[in-house]
Specification:
By secondary structure, this protein is α+β, with helices and mostly antiparallel strands. The chain has four helices and twelve strands. The chain is globular.
């Protein structure tokens, strides 16, 4: 949920509302919801063609898609992965981009070899015909396909699995020659030894990028 700090001086408020607003000011902020992503922003994000990006549709488990990374900014900042965002900020916590904790975030990365041991307790599943690891108490998944991995970070195991089940390419149309989920061209979760000296993102908690959610999704300081 986005926090919008109260601005004083709104003369049209009746006395009771003014009292409520003053309380909100003293507490820090009032709240309101950010709407679904616009048709224009959605079309713009789909112009990204560097590699296949995945999403889970316009809504997952009652939460709307609210934003996606900008292809223009992506080329400027060259971040780790391309992110689509669902819902509004729920607060600040360990699953964050720019201090923003969302109900759901899906990041598509170019795979970099990394051991999944850092994920902690985990179990492996097959979804869409490819391998995936579930960790973080079920809130997080990493799915392995083609030369990419897809990181799902959610606020509940149910929402994480709903997103995983609904995954599909965001910026291309699958075909017989190029299916939605090709088998990975790498070995997921390689042994520790070959990783000695390797560099690159680990994928843990959904691999954040240099591009944070827009101010629309960010909670204002309380």
């Amino acid at each position: 949920m986005r926090f919008a700090c109260f601005r004083p001086g709104l003369r049209y408020r009746p006395p009771l509302a003014a009292i409520v607003a003053l309380g909100a000011l003293l507490a820090g902020c009032s709240t309101h919801q950010v709407g679904p992503i616009s048709v224009t922003a959605l079309a713009s994000a789909r112009h990204f063609k560097e590699y296949t990006v995945y999403w889970a549709g316009l809504e997952v488990d009652g939460v709307h898609m609210t934003e996606a990374d900008s292809p223009t900014l992506f080329s400027i900042y060259t971040p780790v992965g391309f992110i689509v965002y669902y819902g509004n900020c729920e607060g600040r916590g360990p699953l964050r981009d720019g201090g923003c904790t969302l109900p759901l975030k899906i990041t598509t990365n170019i795979y970099e070899p990394h051991s999944d041991a850092s994920f902690g307790p985990q179990h492996w599943i097959s979804i869409h015909g490819v391998s995936a690891v579930v960790y973080g108490g079920g809130d997080d998944l990493e799915i392995y396909t083609d030369h990419q991995d897809i990181d799902i970070v959610a606020d509940s195991p149910a929402r994480a699995m709903a997103a995983a089940a609904a995954l599909e390419p965001f910026n291309r149309t699958p075909s017989a020659e190029w299916p939605a989920f090709p088998q990975p061209v790498y070995t997921p979760n390689p042994p520790q030894a070959p990783l000695a000296g390797a560099s690159g993102p680990s994928g843990v908690t959904g691999a954040t990028t240099a591009i944070a959610p827009s101010p629309e999704l960010e909670p204002s300081p309380s």
